[in-house]
Design brief:
Blueprint (H helix, E strand, L loop, with lengths): L3 E6 L11 E9 L2 E9 L2 H27 L9 H23 L3 H15 L1
Antiparallel strand pairs: 1-2, 2-3
Length: 120
């Protein structure tokens, strides 16, 4: 496996796209193997969260403009306040809840890798 990379995820029996993914690379360093690991969420989840909170930031800036400088649509400015608040609460709950479910993934994966490398 020297000079190769792998992605390792913990097997679960429910769908959680926010589960931890550990990228592993093994390289040769003068006869010694160096194992590097990076843990995080998958790229599609990062893109989703960037788009979600980016849209939320855009929507909040429009809401602030509408409240401060007069609503673009008279009488409907309250939606520009309620929708971003709901989006933020939903996004925060989604990330927090899903990351809570994946809280032990990194430790489990690293323990598995350690056992596999010690056995080799």
């Amino acid at each position: 496996m020297l000079g190769r990379e792998a992605r390792v995820v913990r097997r679960i029996f429910y769908q959680n796209s926010f589960r931890t993914v550990v990228s592993v690379s093994v390289a040769d360093n003068r006869g010694n193997a160096i194992v590097q690991t990076v843990a995080g969420v998958s790229m599609p989840v990062r893109i989703l969260m960037l788009a979600w909170f980016g849209f939320l930031l855009l929507f909040c800036s429009l809401a602030l403009q509408g409240v401060a400088g007069g609503s673009p649509v008279e009488g409907d400015w309250i939606y520009f306040v309620l929708v971003p608040g709901g989006m933020f609460l939903f996004g925060f709950a989604l990330v927090t809840g899903c990351r809570y479910l994946a809280r032990d993934d990194e430790a489990v994966i690293l323990a598995y890798l350690r056992r596999r490398l010690e056995a080799a």
